[in-house]
Amino acid sequence: MKWLRAAGCVTLLLMAAISLPAQDDAELPLGAARSEYEIKSAILYNFTKFVQWPGRALGETGVPAVVGVLGDDGLVPVLEASLRNKTVYGHPIVVRRLYSSAGAKSCAVLFVGVSDRSEIFRIVRSVGASPVLTIGQCVQFTRLGGVSALIREGGRYQFQINREAAERAGLKVSSKLLRLATVVRAAPERARN
Questions:
Q1: Which of 16, 91, 124, 153 is spaced 20 to 30 A from 22 at the CA atom?
Q2: What's the predicted TM-score (pTM) here?
Q3: What is the block-wise mean pLDDT of the chain (193 residues), using blocks of 10 residues?
């Protein structure tokens, strides 16, 4: 029953996000930009309900699960507010702003807010096979080895999942989430350079 409620919640959030107009954040009034961050935050949180981390990857119950943000500083305060008092599999969520990929491996979730292809590849490579749910916000993110991308396309929000990247990280993505996503494969290594 809890699973069904969560599935309905993520579907509603995704449908709400899908209907947002695609505009640059700079063009949006302050309230609208905040709403977009709130939707990203809600979707990010709901992703955690449909992903399982391997074994003790999140540590002992009660140890905080870190959501790291790299490159989108505007998202940090909204994530902090919306994820306050929330948990993932019994772990309280803590949001951290990262200034480099050095601390990325210690995150349960890493939101990558950069769009430069070589920077994305460098970040994804630095995470390696660590059990980190990487989420980006551009089309090339999953093709460069990230696990998931939340992208605006044709005036709607959609998301992609790279199953190979999830498996490499030891993450199990629910079939319910996969049915709502576009499943992509990473580009061959030589095409990334």
A1: 124
A2: 0.81
A3: 46 43 41 73 93 93 94 93 95 96 95 94 94 94 95 80 96 94 74 46
